[in-house]
């Protein structure tokens, strides 16, 4: 059924509704007012011939439609007075359109547990990276990521040595964990950045945080200790998918993100909350 046909059908439906409007019927003289509670007589099946006194055999079901994925017509719709009504009861356009635009699906629907790993150091689980042992066994010793100057907007790929940068983060946590009280310190909340090679501005090469959360370069920002560039929403996404408590202010969720990432890299390390 074409778009114009569907519109015309809707107009017909609304007219039929107006005819049955009980408010409109109340305005007519009482003698001509039918009782709205009286049910309409049941519709008789279409019959081209004269009225019959014996019950006619049920009409044959409509032939199956040839559209793939078309939902089969239920028997009640098949015995409806017209084929148009049967089609209206089961319009094929809506499910087909939903499949053509999967991005329009409700949020959270059909979200798979696994994703294509966005980096060689990431697993196929959301917000999860491989352990140090695994990465070193795969000869992955440098972690790269994109950064952009806050002033001149020049982009640059930055590379961190995996082991030495991880040891920096681990030493920071080991030395200060006892008085962090489950909250990120100022150094993590307001990260320091490398200088820009293009314009020379110090402390301005911010990591580029992917728009899609599943593609965020978590390990790159852990090693640069720049996870504080993430929004609260992005950090909550990380905590949600790593089964961490995820309510609270940003300093609390940021702290949890640092510890959880360190735990992923070094499961036996001192990174319990
Ligand atoms: Zn710059």
From TrEMBL:
Annotated ranges, domain DUF7086: 132-265
Annotated Pro residues bias: 31-66
Comp. bias (Basic and acidic residues): 1-17
Region described as Disordered: spans on this chain: 1-67, 83-117
InterPro entries: DUF7086
Record PANTHER family: EXPRESSED PROTEIN
Protein name, entry field: Wiskott-Aldrich syndrome protein family member 2-like
Source organism of the structure: Phoenix dactylifera (Date palm)
Lineage of the organism: Eukaryota, Viridiplantae, Streptophyta, Embryophyta, Tracheophyta
Originating gene: LOC120104252
